[in-house]
Specification:
The protein is mainly alpha-helical. It contains 4 helices and 3 strands, in the order αβββααα.
Length: 139
């Protein structure tokens, strides 16, 4: 089954944001702007959860940016390539949908989903070009 942006808006927005954030992190790691480490970001800047795989636990750790939660959270202390900036702007379009359409129940304006799909495709295009791969975009 395929999610439709308007009919399944909460799931579509959330999964699009989640997938694009993973792609953004891959691009940031590839560009050597963040560290590829075995940890998970938290809501606290600089605080990560590091798995203790031997004991099945998560341990708190502070370290330089690994995976980001959003572009700019945590800040990256280096200039960002244009492709990452454009992808971040496109991703922000989708992130800004959380409050009205995922957490809230605002009605979706006519044609709004076309803008969401355009932002989704732009983010994928920019990041896949930076990664040197072509990802198929289904809209």
């Amino acid at each position: 089954m395929r999610l439709e942006p308007e009919a399944d808006r909460e799931l579509w927005i959330w999964t699009a944001m989640n997938g694009l954030t993973h792609l953004l992190n891959a691009a940031l790691h590839e560009a050597r702007l963040t560290r590829e480490v075995d940890s998970f970001h938290s809501q606290v800047e600089g605080l990560y959860c590091v798995p203790d795989r031997a004991n099945g636990l998560l341990v708190d750790a502070m370290h330089a940016p690994g995976d980001v939660m959003h572009l700019g959270r945590p800040p990256i202390p280096a200039p960002l390539p244009g492709a990452i900036m454009r992808a971040g702007a496109a991703l922000k379009v989708l992130e800004d949908l959380r409050v009205p359409y995922v957490r809230g129940d605002d009605p979706v304006p006519s044609g709004a989903a076309d803008q969401w799909l355009k932002a989704y495709a732009e983010c994928i295009t920019q990041l896949s070009n930076l990664l040197g791969t072509q990802l198929e975009i289904e809209t």
